[in-house]
Amino acid sequence: MEQPPGFLDSKYPSHVCWLKKALYGLKQAPRAWFQRLSVFLVQHGFQCSRADPFLFIYKHASCVLYLLVYVDDIILTGNNSSKISDFITRLHKEFSIKDLGKLSYFLGLEISYTEYDLFLSQTKYAHDILVRAQLLDSKPIATPFPTAASFTTDGHPYDDPTYYHSLVGALQYLTITRPNISYVVNQVSQFLHTPTIDHFQDVKRIIRYIKGTMHYGLTFYHSPKPSLLGYSDVDWACCIETRRSTYGYSIFLGGNLVSWSAKKQPTVARSSCESEYRALENTATEIVWITHLLRELYILPPDRPTIMCDNKSALILSQSPVSHKRSKHIDIDYHFVRELVSSGKLYTKFVPTHLQLSDIFTKSLPRPLFESFRTKLHVGVPPIRLRGY
Fold first, then answer.
1. 159 CB-side CA count, 13 A
2. Closest C-alpha to 167, from 181, 148, 153
3. pTM of this prediction?
4. What is the Cα 228 distance to its own chain's centre?
5. Do β-strands 117-121 and 217-221 pair in parallel, antiparallel, or remain unpaired?
6. Which of 48, 225, 265, 289 is 20 to 30 A removed from 72 (C-alpha atoms)?
């Protein structure tokens, strides 16, 4: 800590300024603002969520309010419109804020509504990516990556790694509403340190796919009886150079996709059963976090969650308390899923490979299967409902 230029005290050169009020531009500003807002919310009956520290929940009788904070952007919703209006008035008296009305645009996400549906998209953000990549006039392509191709470190280095980082980072944020490109974006993200010309061509192919699906997004439908259903899948030893597996999961709440992931496993698996079992554990961990969040939101489904897996050996390993010789080397923390199953908090079930929705997060698929899974993930154009008069 040093005295700022122009405010040096010759008598006390080793002294520093005492911060009385945090302003924009200071490192302490975000933390000070969040602390100030948190104290205000707690004083008005809100409780900070344990599952998400930026989520605050108000519960009184049948009234429930949810308030989500991202720096100085706030989303407020609930089941009591008069209580919401009253609390917005209190916020106005305490802070200098602007009420933008019904949520329509938030951090690059575009929200549109129909009578029964909610549609999230990033059309403007996708357009900006195309402009940045100078591919706005490029020819669209049906799939983000060819089926038979693979990702390797071979090839000539790309001469502008910073530009490559910029495009890949933008694509990572686009996966918020475009889970169907999560796998290929994860793959090109693994070569940020030393990208090659081939990797840059892969990124351009992804952007060309986005060109033809620019208006696509996630649709959420109303479900009267929501339940948690997860899909877990692995492409065993798919990496040619490291022989590590890529796993993916997708979790649905009431038929709506709420969480997904495509990642490379940190260690090499000796068998497909082992890699599938590790993927089950990762999926179970995410489901446990979601159940904690839903419990705090007072909307936890009464039925126990279910994970669908297409590997029978991994299912038997998750359901059987017997330690087999081939599974002794598996770390203890991966048996977490077995404890959940034995305690009745989780149910694992077999699903055929052609119905395994998480297959789209582990490998490049043929166009018919890719489009089929994309539809089942509720990724597509905005829903249109016609009403007669």
1. 0
2. 181
3. 0.85
4. 16
5. antiparallel
6. 289
Tokens, residue 93: 């008296």
Whether residue 359 lies inside any domain: the answer is no
What is the pLDDT at residue 223? Answer: 84
Same-domain check for residues 276 and 336: yes
The residue with tokens 């059987």 is 320
**Same domain as 276, residue 245:** yes
Q: Is pLDDT of 386 > 60?
A: no
Using the predicted structure, report yes or no on whether residue 387 has a pLDDT greater than 60. Answer: no
Say if 238 falls within a structural domain: yes
Residues 359 and 302: their CA atoms lie apart, in Å, by 28
Express the helix, strand and coil content of the chain in percent, nearest 5 each: 35, 20, 45
Residues 342 and 232 in one domain: yes
Burial (0-12, 13-18, 19+ Cβ within 10 Å), 173: middle
Give me the domain span that covers residue 26: 1-101
Q: Torsion over CA of 129, 135, 137 and 143, rounded to 10 degrees?
A: -90
Take residue 269 and report the two structure tokens written for it: 């698996």
Average pLDDT in the 225-234 region?
Answer: 91
DSSP H helices, the chain, are 29-43, 81-94, 123-132, 161-174, 182-189, 197-212, 272-296, 312-319, 336-342, 367-376
197 shares its domain with 309: no
Same domain, 195 and 275: no
Helix (H, G, I), strand (E, B) or coil at 181: helix
